[in-house]
Amino acid sequence: MMTAALPDTMRAMVLQRPGEPLRLAHRPLPRPGPGQLLLKVEACGVCRTDLHLVDGELPDPRLPIVPGHEIVGRVVAQGTAVTGFAAGQRVGVPWLGWTCGRCRFCTGGRENLCDAARFTGYQIDGGYADYTVADARFCFPLADGAALEQAPLLCAGLIGYRALRLAGAARRVGIYGFGAAAHIVAQVLRHQQRPFYAFTRPGDSGSQDFARHLGAAWVGDAGQLPPERLDAALIFAPAGALVPAALRHVDKGGCVVCAGIHMSDIPAFPYADLWGERMIRSVANLTRQDGIDFLDLAPRVPVRTAVTAFRLEDANLALDALRRGDVQGAAVLEMS
Ligand SMILES: [Zn+2]
Ligand SMILES: [Zn+2]
Fold first, then answer.
1. I need a labelling partner for 320 at 20 to 30 A (CA). Which of 45, 57, 284, 308 fits?
2. Is the per-residue pLDDT at 336 higher than 90?
């Protein structure tokens, strides 16, 4: 079922080959297959994962690919067998784009680890485009509101939330890398009255001021000693050297959670630093339940995202800004 007045073609920013800039292309409008929604994209967040994809740090992307997995759009058409969505409805599309539903991970409540999962903007064309199609089962209904500010919730928010959840009941939480995910997690922690400690690149006074503004109990360089031992550390920066550094600040029984999809190698460290039932773990992807839980929590905090808007055709500028660490909060593409 297609609604009236849809164009024949759309703009998309396309990655032909890792290591190259994205190229603006005019493509035929995709048609929603069975179970899919066709969405008019209103905004799409620019995630560090997109940078890893473009820089060739992720294995086996489907090429050419349209990146973007923090998609906020409106339903303009639906394929057959879609239930629960209405034309004009605002929805969000996250990184998890498809799972097999049959493997032991899917059937055990861990679909984020599905052996055959496909990811938006990686194996499935994503939101750096005027329109996109998405499997309705993996889309989240969103309230109306500013699309720009909702976009970062779809990955930075969801992954940040999952990372925090995996840290359990940790009270004093260190946050390494104060970007898009961190600024959302910080608001959740403050809402829950748990103190957080922000570690940034040395001398990054912009991020340090930002963290202070969001209520950090302490702010410092990644190499500095926090005033108290941490119960958990969440690492959002892709630097492996932060893992042993964070581990040294974590108290007995505490946990270091690595939230990025890619990280440089972790240097060797003495076993004594891990002793005392300290843990190091990664966070991989999200489950749909994470999305439901976080999108329910976000308005109650309420999470307010700080965004820098870029035009779709300026996606390469947005990626460059992210690479340089020049974005306070989240970079988001806004479709006109
Ligand atoms: Zn599966
Ligand atoms: Zn992401």
1. 284
2. no
On the 0-12 / 13-18 / 19+ scale of CB atoms within 10 A, 240 is middle
Confidence (pLDDT) at 5: 84
Task: Determine the distance separating the centroid of ligand 1 and the alpha carbon of 284, expressed in angstroms.
Answer: 14
Q: Measure the CA–CA gap between 331 and 314, rounded to whole angstroms.
A: 11
**Can you tell me the distance from the alpha carbon of 336 to that of 330, in angstroms, rounded to the nearest whole number?**
19
Find the 305 Cα to ligand 2 centroid distance in Å: 15
Where exactly are the structural domains of the chain? 9-153+306-334, 157-282
Task: Give the C-alpha separation, 84 to 98, whole Å.
Answer: 18
CATH 1.10.10.10 is the classification of domain 9-153+306-334: no
Q: What is the mean pLDDT of the chain?
A: 96
Domain at 157-282, CATH from 3.40.50.720, 3.40.50.150, 3.20.20.70, 1.10.1040.10 = 3.40.50.720
Which residues fall inside 5 Å of ion ligand 1, going by CB? 99-100, 103, 106, 114
**Ligand 2 ion: Cβ-proximal residues, 5 Å cutoff:** 47, 49, 155
Confirm if 258 and 280 have CB atoms less than 8 A apart. yes
Distance 332 CA to ligand 1 centre (A): 30
What pTM, to 2 d.p., does this model score? 0.95
Cα 222 to Cα 215: distance, rounded to the nearest angstrom: 18
Percent of the chain whose predicted confidence (pLDDT) is above 90: 97
